[in-house]
Structures are given as structure tokens and as C-alpha cells.
Amino acid sequence: MGPNVGNPITSRTTPHQRFQPPAPEPRPGWVERLYAGEPKHCKRELVPFLRNLLFFGLVFAVCRLYATEGRAFQVLLQVAGVAFPIHYLAPYRWKKAVFLAASVAGLFLVFGADVGAVVVGLSAAMIGVTRLPISWNLRAGILAAFTTFLAVGRPVSLFDQASSVVWPVIGSMFMFRLIVYMYELKHAKKPEPMMDTVGYFFLLPNYCFMLFPVVDYRTWQRGFFAANVHDVQRRGLDMTFRGVVQLILYRIIDQELLIPASDVAGPWSLLGFLAFNYLVYLQVSGQFHIACGMLHLFGYQLPDTHHRYLLATGFTDYWRRINIYWKDFMVRLVFNPVVFRLKKWPQPAALAAATAVVFVVTWLLHGYQSFWLRGTWGFTVPDAVFWTVLGALVMVNVQLDARRGPARPRLKPKADELPAGYDYKGMAVRCAKTAATFATITLLWSLWNSPSLAAWFDMLARGLRAS
Amino acid sequence: MALIQTTSLRDARVAMLQAAALVALALIPVPKGWTKAGRVMASAASNASQRADGDHHATGYYEGLVGGAEGPSGRGELTLKLMGKPNGWVRFNDAGVVRHLNRDFLHFELIPKIDSVLFGQPFVTNSHGMHGPEVAVEKPPGVFRIALLGASIDMGWGVKYQDAYAHRLQEWLNAHAARQGFASARKFEVLNFAVAAYSPLQRLESFRRKAKEFQPDLVVFSSTMLDSRLAEIHLCDAFRIQADLPYDFLREAVARAGVTDADRRLDLRGELAGKEAIKRKMEPLYWELYDRTVEALAGDCRSMGVPLMMVVIPRVGKDADEAARAESVGRLKAIAGRSALPIYDLSDTFDGVDPPELEIAAWDDHPNAEGHRLLFLALTHRLVTDQGRYELLFPGRKAVAESALPGDLP
User: Fold this and answer.
1) Are residues B387 and B250 part of one domain?
2) B244 to chain A nearest CA, in Å?
3) Nearest CA of chain A to the CA of B207: how many Å?
4) Comparing A140-144, A155-159, A342-346, B36-40, which segment has the lowest mean pLDDT?
5) Yes or no, beta carbons of A370 and B39 under 8 Å apart
6) Residues B166 and B197 in one domain
7) Nearest to B59 among A61, A111, A449 (CB)
8) What is the chain A residue with the closest CA to B11?
9) Is residue B410, in this structure, part of any structural domain at all?
10) Residue A304: closest CA among chain B residues belongs to which residue?
11) Is the pLDDT of residue B58 over 50?
């Protein structure tokens, strides 16, 4: 017998008493929190979502009250506002489709059915070519021929039937993203999902911002629900708000503070012109922040497009902080391949050559971008001088950085160590570097925006003359 | 340097508070005396930089890209789309309502007998190319004719002619005449010779070629704050189309400015090679040219025995606010004074009214029907309190004191 023999009644429970009913299934709440097979980042929670919705509402109110951008932006903001909760609640497998549907709806709402239909048709043709079952070289060749045909054909009567708006829209969608996508295809080990491919070209905020950041395909794809959705949304809303504030500042600078170059007379007006002429770039950084911020609402976590570029302490630092997507685009497609090809060269020479190629390509691609968005290449002497000088300055900085070696991480003081005093000298040096970089960039920027070298020198002469 | 920094909850709350503060700032009205603050707030909420006829300061690479291609008359089609142009909204130059005149100083005019839609409104011209009802060249007996010389606002840009202040004035004058007992003896016709983008010189040219023929009894020369810009555009166009300059004072000014044949040379696209140089050289002379233009018009009117007067018409928005317009209005008054002309300064008509209530669209600061109603009221108000003009319109009648405006004023 066993140990329970002494008191069988109390020590043993009957089988029906031992039965524990299974814990009740949680009653379905306001929505399924996580459907089967969904990634954990997708988990839906009421409070964080409502908080983000409130944040969106406040940003929306600011945009309405300050009439941010134009109708196109306001329409897309409304589309985003409608699609945001739908996308959030939709099962994970539908989310990309919801985003794509919102994007296509945005395209048609902003530009109308005539432009929308042509854009969709041409996009389908180009995306179709990228997926043809032929060699990469052949696909790239066909695309090059097709885009050249579109570019050359623009003024031809064949294209007269299409609205003139079609070309900048198509250009904005494909001029860089197609290059990035083809580059990825060349190195991809497996075919890209169709939904990702189409979604990458049809990005909702693109239809109000023709000048659009060069979003990297793989970063965009990997960023989808790469972190908790509420954190991603919150980050996107913060970016969007930052962008809206920058656009408000841009308006005040452009309309209240910036004087025409022809009005420069004396040192103060010159300083004011140089600073504010550069600060109108806030329009670009503001638009880029909003564009990427809007993508975050749909789960795409992306890096910052600009990072405190006014505080750059050198030219490489500036190049890394301003238009980060462009820098990454150039590093991946130009700098690294050139350095790799020149790996037998001495390192300083290889770095110098790669930097030079990056700036030449940047200059050419800025003309190419101008062609698609404005219809003119826009190459000018000041333009060439600007990129040459900036390239040379970055090249010198790259060499200095390479000699210095990688920066050592700062060690935290040990617990028993007295905290170091405030580094006034270091701060002063940093301030001086920032001021010098800012001054040089503002000067270069005024050159870039000047109609000719003679006009720029004339403006400087008027500014340096004592009033 | 792929920067992906999560926004903390604390940072998000701070951003939300900042957004709420911006909302409050936009909703709380700026106190009356705070002119500078009011202007800054108006700029913060104004998309003037991207307007249809924008001529803003920033002209760099990115501003061009953000704005899209430049059209022949201002911002491009893409910009208009992005700013809010509905589908089917046709630009002035694309609407087929003007015809260009080959190598002609007038450069363009409204096509007669047009029945079209412009900026979403019916646009109808009579057989003489006026945005208004049909009139005969020969003045009928008992009719008092007012010839209006002006630009886009006066033409009725973005409103149907029945809503334009010129036509409202005609209707009211006739109604007022009936009340005053002139019903059978006196009728009024306001002939609208205004055409969008006409510079002061084109207004003078239009008077000589067209308005004179209609035997006006009063000529009203309308001025705007944009007249020097219109003068610049017109002069560059005149050089571009190689039109002869018909006035001695203009030829003399061009010569004095140092505009050379090289500046006037056309490039392969048919554009002025030295456009920027011409603009720079002529810029100091526009007000002097304005003065000479009004002087020439006053001389013409005097020789015809027709009274001439000037009115200053505002645009909508902060670009026409008191500080911005002070200099131009002062100069216009001085010009009127030198030619001994009466001038009605209506530039404060839109002060204190929210611009979105008065402009035809978010991207176009021309006044809508309500704006024209306010202009009409301001103009009528000045007419009925100005004995000289009132007696000209209604002989033998006394202008009413401001405190006792006639009851038929709307």
C-alpha cells in the first residue's frame, strides 16, 4: 500500500474533483491583438495606439491651421489619416496591400484619373521589365532604353496627349529608386516579392513631394515592422511634426527675412543674405522628414534623413548629416565599388579617387534630377564650381580622418574617479569648427544659387563694401 | 550612419505639447497693434512662396525642384496641381482667352466674343474684347461712360463679370441714378478695358487704341502694388518679341539704362539672352516710367476734355498689408499729385479680413466675388463722398456726407 492508505478520504480527491476546467479563452476585445503567425511587433494595444492617434490629430490640426504645403499634401494627410487605423487593425498579411491601396488612391486623388492612369501604366511597364525572366544585363538595357525613350520623347508630339505633370511624377518615382532596385536585384539571391516591389515605387507621400528622399529598397523592406509598431508610429509622428515645424520656419525665413541677392549692400545685409539663403533648405529637410515620418505610420521604420546638419563640425561630418539617404546611396553605389576596384592602390589615393567620383556623379545626378522634375538639366558654371569646391573640401577631410584612424569611444569614468571638469577648450574648438563649417557652406550655397560667377562676385563686392 | 533613434514617450509628450501650443497660437487672434507679430504669423500660415504667380526670393536649385518647371507665366502646371489646382482648372495663358499680337507693343489682348470657363468661373467677352456685357462703339445719347484701365483684378480674374467691382459699380450707378431722378436722362456704362498682366504702359496703349474710340466721360486708371513687376515683365516681353517701343520717354529711359543690343539678343530657344541684365538695368527706372506714363495719359485725357482719376486696388493677403504697401501707395499718390489727378486709395479695403475668405484659391491671391463686393463698396463710398466726382456723375447734386450715405448703398 502506499502512504495514502491511512486517510483515503482526505488525502485523495476523486477524479471529478481533480478536474480543472481550462482557463477561459480571453473574450475577444475591441480587436484581435495578434493574429496567428503575426510578428510580435504587430501586437495591437489600445492605449499606445490612441496616444499615437492623438499625436496624429495634433499634427493634422497644425497642418490645417498653418495650411502646410498645398492641397496635395492636405489630401495625402487625409488619406494617411483614414488608412492609418485601417492599416493598424488589418491582419499583418494585408498591411502592405492596405499601404499600396492608400498610395494609389493618393496618386489619383492628387493628380486626377488622366495623370494617374498614365503613371500607373508606365509604372507597370517598368516594373514588369524588372521582373522579366531574362538576364539582369538585358533587363537593365531595356530599362535604360525605355527611360531614354521617355526622356527624349518628352518634347515630341507623341507625348503631347499626356499631361505635362506625368513626367515629373514618373521621374520622381523612378529616377533613383529604379537604380537602387536594380542594384539590389543584381545582388539578390532570391526574387523580390511583388508587393514589396510595387509598394517601393508607390510611396504615398511621394505624390505631394516631388523632390523625394532616395529611400533604399533593402532598408525600407527590412524596416517593415522591425520594431514595436507603436514605437515606430511614434517616431514617425515625431519626424512628421519636426518636418512641419521646419516648413513653418522656412516660410518665415523666405517671406520675412530673406532679401533678394540684388538688395545686398553692406556687410550686415550680406551676412543676412548668406545665412537665410542657406536656411531656406529647411523646406527640403522639412519635406523629407514628413515624407519618411508618414511611412512610419504604416510600419516602415527608416533612418533619419537629416541629422542636425547645421551643427556639422567639418565637411565630411556635413556630408554625413545632410541628406543622409543621398550619402548612403552614393556610398553603396559609387564610393564602395570604386574603393573596391582600387584596392591595390595606396589607401589615400583610392579614397581621393572614390570621393572625386562621388562628387562628379552627384553633380551629374543633380542635373539628371533637375531634368526629370523641371525639364531642364540646369548645369551652370556656379553649379560646377560648387560641387568641385565641396568635393575638394570633403576630400581633404576624408584624408585627415583616414590618417587619424577610427575615433576611440569615450570611456565612462570609473565610479571612484572624480568627474572630469567641463571641457571648455573642447567645447570652444567644437563651436569654432561648427561656425567655420556653417560660414563656408553658406558662402558656397550662395554661389550655387547665383545665376553666374560674375553675379556672385558682384554680390560679394557689394556686401563687403562698407555701407 | 543609419540613425534610428526611438522617440521616447517623454519626447513624444513634449512634441505633442508643442503641437498643441502651435494650434493655440494659430487660433488666438494677434492683438491689433502687434503688426510685426501679425505679419510673422501670416507668413507662417501663408504659402505665398508657392503661389501661382509667385516671384519669391529663394531661387536656388532645390527651390526650383520643389516648385517644378516654370511655366511661361509663373509657376508650372505641377506646382499648381500640388498647391491645389483642381482638374480642369486652366491657366490664363492656356485658357484660349487671349491672343498674342506679333511684334506689337501691346503684346496681347482678350479675344472678342469668348464664352469660356476660367478659374472655374464663366469668362465671357463682348465683341470688343472686354470682360463685360455687349456695348456699342457709338455712345448712345444720355449715356455716361466710364473707361476702366487696369490689370487682372480690374478685369475680374477668377470671378464672372457680373461679380467684378466694375460691373457692380455700373449697376449701382444706374440704380442710384433712378433714385436720384435721372432715370430717363442718364444711364451709365462702365467699360472694362482691363486685361490681366497689363502694365501701366499697356494700359496707356490700350486707352489710345481702344478706349478713346468709345468716347468716355471719365477715365479711371487702376494701380496695384505689382505694377512695377508688371512693367518689368512687359518690357522684357516687348524686347523678346522685338516690338517697337512707341513712346519717346520709354526709348530714352531704355537708352539711359544702358540696355544694349547684346542684352536684347535672343538665344536659340527664342528667349532674351540678357534678361537678368535688362531687369537689373531697368529696375531703378520703373517708377519714373510710371510717372511719365500717367503724365502721357493725363495729357491725352486733357486734350480730349475727359477727366482722369486714379484708384489704388489691393491684392488679398499679407503682401498687400499696410507695411508692405506703404511705399508703393506713397509713390502712386505722388504720381497722381504731379499730374494733378484725384486718387482714391482703396488699398485698405481688405484689412482685417482673413485672406482665405477673400482670395479665389489658396494658391491665387486675386479677390473672389466677396473681395470684389468689398472693392465696389469702398469705391462707391469714396464716390458718394467726393463732391468733384459725384457732381460729374450726377450734375447739380451734392455729395452726401459720410455720416449720411444714401440708403441704396448695399
Assistant:
1) yes
2) 29
3) 34
4) A155-159
5) no
6) yes
7) A449
8) A238
9) no
10) B3
11) no
User: Which residue range(s) make up the domain with B41?
Assistant: 9-92
Give the SS3 label for residue A224. strand
Q: Which of B40, B61, B63 sits opposite A256 (nearest CB)?
A: B40
Q: Do B230 and B320 fall within a single domain?
A: yes
Of the three residues B59, B92, B125, the one that is the final residue of a domain is: B92
Cβ contact B66–A284 (<8 Å): yes
A324/B3 CB distance under 8 A: yes
| Interface residue B17 vs chain A (CB under 8 A) | no
Q: Any idea where the domains of chain A sit in the sequence?
A: 41-238, 307-405+426-464
**In a shared domain, residues B84 and B108:** no
Global pTM?
0.75
The answer to whether the CB of B259 falls within 8 A of the CB of B251 is no
Same domain, B53 and B156: no
A positions 94-113 inside 8 Å of B (CB)? 110-113
Question: Which residues of chain B make contact with A376, given a CB cutoff of 8 A?
Answer: 69
- Largest alpha-carbon pair distance within chain A? 114
Same domain, B254 and B341: yes
Instruction: Give residue-wise pLDDT tens across range B110-155.
Output: 999 988 888 778 899 999 999 999 999 999 998 999 999 999 999 9
What size, in residues, is chain B? Answer: 410
Answer yes or no: do B220 and B360 share one domain: yes
CA–CA gap between residue A114 and residue A102 (Å, rounded): 18
Same domain, B263 and B155: yes
Which three-class secondary structure state does DSSP give residue A165?
A: coil
Torsion angle defined by CA atoms of residues A440, A443, A446 and A448, in that order, rounded to the nearest 10 degrees: -50
Angstrom distances, CA of residue A415 to CA of A409, A420, B183: 18, 12, 101
Amino acid at A314: G
What average pLDDT score do residues A108-118 get? 92
pLDDT at B50 over 60: no
